[in-house]
């Protein structure tokens, strides 16, 4: 699945799932703009890509801020060219009991997890439409399929992103731009390790008895952004080791 000549933006690509996606797309031939809020993480991912012979740049900024997105897009296009692949991965997943969620926290989760992807799509979509080719993959969450305790704000934001993905897939189906989503299951990332969840204990309850690897999410993204997935839009590829087997 060659991505030679394609230019990709991956948000939240300084670590975890985002870093794995950026590295995989580069391995498949894409030039990658590694967007992250933390310079150290973005630089580390770029170093991994370039050490393997790929081409990447680090773009540091807030992928939920319109001005920062515009500036990041300008830098990306000046360095690499027009963007035809966007993976919206940046997000936060706090654990807060519903009655303890204040307005500031609710708004922050919505801004990062839902408004940010919307702003990034709005930034890059016109050029994709003009080119007649584009791929947008939104990283949602298995919590939209099962719910998640003490994460009402998080689940609501990712559920909104699910709905946005399907709406845009329908609206732009004839344009050559596809919109799909990957909801990760229980994936072993720094964010998960920093959460209150006991990774080893919970892993024993899963069908595969292990957490997923970021590279397994990246593999699904690599397919969805490829030419092989030209007739796939509005779809969900659930990468969760059998944790959820529904049709949504």
Structure commentary:
The protein is α/β, with parallel strands linked by helices. It has a single domain, classed as Rossmann fold. It has 9 helices and 6 strands; from the N terminus they run βαβαβαβαβααβααα. The protein has helices spanning 16-27, 39-51, 66-79, 103-131, 143-146, 152-171, 190-194, 199-203, 214-224; strands at residues 7-11, 31-36, 56-60, 85-88, 134-139, 177-182. It has a 6-stranded parallel sheet with strand order 3-2-1-4-5-6, with helices on both faces. α1 packs parallel to α2 and α3 (66-79) runs parallel beside α4. The protein is globular, with a radius of gyration of 17 Å. The two termini are 26 Å apart. The model has no long low-confidence stretch (mean pLDDT 96).
Binned, the helix content reads 40-55%
Number of helices: 9
Number of domains: 1
The largest pleated sheet is described as:
6 strands, parallel
Tally of extended strands?
6
CATH superfamily: NAD(P)-binding Rossmann-like Domain
| Distance separating the two termini | 26 Å
Major sheet strand order: 3-2-1-4-5-6
SSE topology string: EHEHEHEHEHHEHHH
Q: Using only CA atoms, what is the Rg?
A: 17 Å
- CATH class equals Alpha Beta
Stated plainly, the CATH topology is called Rossmann fold
Overall mean pLDDT stands at 96
- CATH architecture descriptor name: 3-Layer(aba) Sandwich
What is the strand content? 5-15%
General form: globular
């Amino acid at each position: 699945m060659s991505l030679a000549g394609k230019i990709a933006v991956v948000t939240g690509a300084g670590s975890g799932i985002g870093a794995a996606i950026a590295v995989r797309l580069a391995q498949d031939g894409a030039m990658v703009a590694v967007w992250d809020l933390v310079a150290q993480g973005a630089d580390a991912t770029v170093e991994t890509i370039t050490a393997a012979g790929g081409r990447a740049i680090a773009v540091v900024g807030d992928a939920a801020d319109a001005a920062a997105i515009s500036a990041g897009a300008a830098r990306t296009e000046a360095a690499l060219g027009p963007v035809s692949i966007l993976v919206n991965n940046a997000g936060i997943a706090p654990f807060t009991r519903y009655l303890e969620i204040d307005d500031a926290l609710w708004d922050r989760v919505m801004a990062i997890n839902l408004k940010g992807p919307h702003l990034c799509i709005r930034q890059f979509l016109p050029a994709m439409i003009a080119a007649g080719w584009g791929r947008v993959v939104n990283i949602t969450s298995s919590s939209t399929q099962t719910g998640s305790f003490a994460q009402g704000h998080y689940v609501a934001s990712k559920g909104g992103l699910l709905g946005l993905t399907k709406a845009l897939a329908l609206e732009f189906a004839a344009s050559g731009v596809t919109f799909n989503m990957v909801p990760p299951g229980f994936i072993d990332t720094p964010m998960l390790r920093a959460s209150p969840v006991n990774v080893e204990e919970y892993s024993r309850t899963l069908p595969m008895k292990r957490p997923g690897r970021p590279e397994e999410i990246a593999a699904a993204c690599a397919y969805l952004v490829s030419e092989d997935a030209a007739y796939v839009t509005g779809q969900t590829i659930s990468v969760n080791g059998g944790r959820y087997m529904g049709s949504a």
